[in-house]
Give the backbone structure.
Amino acid sequence: MSRPAATVTLTLLVLLAVTGGAVCRAAVQGVDANGQLEDRALQSRFERIASELRCLVCQNETIADSNADLAIDLRQQVREMLVAGKSDDAIFDFMTNRYGEFVRFKPPLELKTLFIWGAPFAMLLLGGVIVFRVVRHRSAMPVDDEPATGP
């Protein structure tokens, strides 16, 4: 590579690094050096939201408790959405639309969740009714006390 081309390439790389840093700094505006939101109300909202979202890698931990890369990214995304002025419901809706209802530790009560939780109890009740009817029907049948006679 010729010397002027190398100088241009190096200049472009330095310019890209500087502007990339400025963009990243703008993206986390409102966040201190420890990763905490500067506004205490936003920080408490962040902690509540992060404790209600499941880490999709760990699956039994919240994104607040997980150190997985995806959880770190999701925490950053929640911070950015809070700084941008999004409501809690908007953040939950975004995460649910993107990752499915599994991402929420406390999914909202809907018809399909009622069905999922209620179906086992309904099947147990149905089984009990069937057993009750069979036992009642058999107890009403006459008892055959006479031994069978052979030919």
User: Anything to note?
Assistant: Residues 110-140 form one domain. The mean pLDDT is 81.
